[in-house]
Amino acid sequence: MPQPSMPLDRIRLELNDLDKQLLKLLSERRTLSLEVAKSKVETSKPVRDASREQELLVKLIKMGQNDFDLDAQYITKLFHTIIEDSVLLQQSYLQNLANPKLARKPLARVAFLGSRGSYSHLASREYFSRKNTELVELNCAGFKEVLNTVESGHADYGVLPIENTSSGSINEVYDLLQHTNLYLVGEVTLPIEHCLLASSDVPLEQVKTLYSHPQPHAQCSEFISHLKGVALETCASTADAMRIVKDLGRDDVAAIGNSQSGKLYGLQPIKGDIANQTENHTRFILVARKAVEVSLQIPAKTTLIMSTDQTAGSLVECLLVFKRFQINMTKLESRPIMGNPWEEMFYIDLECHLESEHMQAALTELTALTRQIKVLGCYPSENIKATQVKLEG
Fold first, then answer.
1. What does the record list as coiled-coil region(s) (predicted)?
2. Is 373 in contact with 364 (CB distance < 8 Å)?
3. Which is nearest to 322 in space by CA: 369, 278, 262, 363?
């Protein structure tokens, strides 16, 4: 006969106890990760050691399978998260050493698009949650206002969306970066989880007007195309769209936004997962009046803009410079130069530290090849690449 199962209450108590032990162990591991960062200050070793990470993950996978009957995919996913946290923690420590004045600032004034609950607002909180910094939040009506608020000194940082995995580049932001004196000092990528929000749990076919920012409209175009007789209204942000729906208080209007943000406005999700792509992410950049010092021990990105001669092969010649110095380019975006018809400005993201030998040599060559070149900023790369391990089976 099968053994009688444990009472549910007892099972839950044991699970609670195990969860507490897990949290304690994770905290202890974080403390040791910080000690690793301190030791790397003395040895000047880089934060990431790919071979060490691979070796560790392979060992953990084998141990988990052989000793604890745990699935390899489960172990890999779990430790990717743990390794990512360790890398970010060490990067933050080294960055604080490189920028002592910023590290001593317990308060940061941050300008972002829209009201509380907008995706820009969520991105600013996500970024600074890693910095143990208290925020003064300044909401703005447009991207230009975000930049103006930082340029005028009323904010220390501005948060701007720059590209989305579904709708692509946000051209208005790229165009504004041509004319600002601000520096790029950071980045954060936020998963975008669009849903349809209304003041009550109304049937989908009852909605006649849909409010949102143009970007979510584009990112949810396939879903919207199946809605019959629905008018689209654009707003400055998803938060403004939610506020409008709340203020109207009608059953025939809805907004596209984040379900958690919708709770701030008393709205209910009536349809989830409406984005064109399941994996929908937006990358945000942080701008400030002063550049940050980036530790040479951490992965960094450099963003620059340049214009080339209007001759055949001029852009290719510039791009070959990056290939020659083995600098990986993660983004190339062209935008028209205002006032110069048919001329383009190229925005380039590079996985390379500005002060590295390769980057400095590449800039020297590019200066001779381009009509104009400007570095917008060098900043820590906070999109941590997962450790690569081949899984069998």
1. 8-35
2. no
3. 363
Q: Does domain 100-192+281-288 have CATH number 3.30.70.3340?
A: no
CATH 3.30.310.10 fits 194-272, yes or no: no
- The mean pLDDT value for 85-92 works out to 88
Output the CA torsion 113→183→328→120 (10° steps).
-10
Phi, psi of 268, rounded to the nearest 5 degrees: -115, 140
Q: What is the pLDDT of residues 134-183, one digit of tens each?
A: 899 999 999 999 999 999 999 999 999 999 888 888 989 998 998 899 99
Q: Are 37 and 47 in contact (CB under 8 A)?
A: yes
Decide: residue 220, CB within 10 A, 0-12 exposed, 13-18 middle, 19+ buried. buried
Instruction: Report pLDDT digits (tens) over 307-359.
Output: 887 778 888 999 999 999 999 999 999 888 776 666 788 999 999 999 999 99
Q: What's the CA gap between 166 and 216, in Å, rounded?
A: 10
The predicted-structure confidence for 160-174, as pLDDT tens digits, reads as follows: 999 988 888 898 999
User: For the structural domain made of 300-380, what CATH number should be given?
Assistant: 3.30.70.260
Structure tokens that stand for 77 in this block: 């996913």
SS3 labels along the chain: CCCCCCCHHHHHHHHHHHHHHHHHHHHHHHHHHHHHHHHHHHHCCCCCCHHHHHHHHHHHHHHHHHHHCCCHHHHHHHHHHHHHHHHHHHHHHHHHHHCHHHHCCCEEEEEEECCCCCHHHHHHHHHHHCCCCEEEEEEECCHHHHHHHHHCCCCCEEEEEEEECCCEECHHHHHHHCCCCCEEEEEEEEECCEEEEECCCCCHHHCCEEEECHHHHHHCHHHHHCCCCCEEEECCCHHHHHHHHHHHCCCCEEEEEEHHHHHHCCCEEEEECCCCCCCCEEEEEEEECCCCCCCCCCCEEEEEEEECCCCCCHHHHHHHHHHHCCCEEEEEEEEECCCCCCCEEEEEEEECCCCCHHHHHHHHHHHHHCCEEEEEEEEECCCCCCCCCCCCC
| Axis crossing angle, helix 72-98 with helix 8-43, rounded to the nearest 10 | 40
